[in-house]
Amino acid sequence: MSAGTELEDVALNFNLGDLDLTSEDFLLDEVDIHIQQNLEDDIVKEALRKGVDLRQYSKEIQKELQEVENASIQDYIKESQNIASLHKQIADCDTILERMEHMLHGFQSDLSSISSEIQSLQEQSVAMNIKLKNRQSIRGELSQFVDEMVIPETMINHILQTPVTEREFLEQLHELNHKINFAKEQSFKDARSCQDVKDILEKLKLKAIAKIREFLLQKINSFKKPMSNYQIPQNAMLKFRFFNEFLMANERHVAKEVRDEYLDTMSKIYNSYFKGYISRLMKLQFEEVATKDDLMAVDDSAKKDILLKYAQTSSSPD
């Protein structure tokens, strides 16, 4: 067989099934390209170089392929149980994966609902936080208002039962005066809570005024005792000067009564003291006056003038 004939056989045996020269869909240049590509194959080149009969070589290759295919079929038959088991496992895996898919869809749905709930809780938290801040902002003022308005039992007991000379009474009197002023201020703002404590404050105020009035009048009357050193109780009254402030702020006519009594008492005391002082001074002056026996050219009329002045002083109204 000549080389030309082998070349033609090779050209016919390679990929001729894919080429239809009678068809109008392929052009001759495309056929040449395919032939050229087959001729450039390394196996074809090696076969042509050795002068191998390509048709016989093709048959051998096809036989080997058939044998390999039969062997593969036998291997598949031997492994049929394993393949069936593998198929069953794959089917089970598909079932499990399908269940997992449904579970994941349900989980996704649950996450969506949880996300909505979290958003709702976040909004509620923000609203509660705002309410908390608002309550904290008014808590201090409200707490102070309640403390200012409430009348503790301690105050009531000290105002009613404790003597006015005790320190506890004076402290509670300061607190009572503060609460009375605070209640007046809030009454101008139409605070309803003032009506709840109005009667109690009024009763405590009247009780405190009565006790203070009695105490101050007793102190003032103690000045009238004969031979008493009025300066000591007078200085002692300075410790209770807030009593007069309380009376001036809450019951001015009682404060005026106490002041008038004090002025009347002290004016009489000072008048009595000055009268005694003047009488003793005049007596001393009369006893020590020089006479004509002590001095030369003394005028006796001077003694008469002094007696006349003393008589006029004594007869003058208080």
TrEMBL record:
One of its GO terms (biological process) is protein transport. Keywords: Golgi apparatus, Protein transport, Transport. Pfam families: Vps52_C, Vps52_CC. The keyword Transcription regulation does not apply. Transmembrane segments: none annotated. Residues 75-247 form the Vps52 coiled-coil domain. GO terms for cellular component: Golgi apparatus. It is found in: Golgi apparatus, trans-Golgi network. The keyword Protein transport applies. Its main location: Golgi. Residues 264-309 form the Vps52 C-terminal domain. It comes from the Eukaryota. Belongs to the VPS52 family. This is Vacuolar protein sorting-associated protein 52 homolog. It comes from Sinanodonta woodiana.
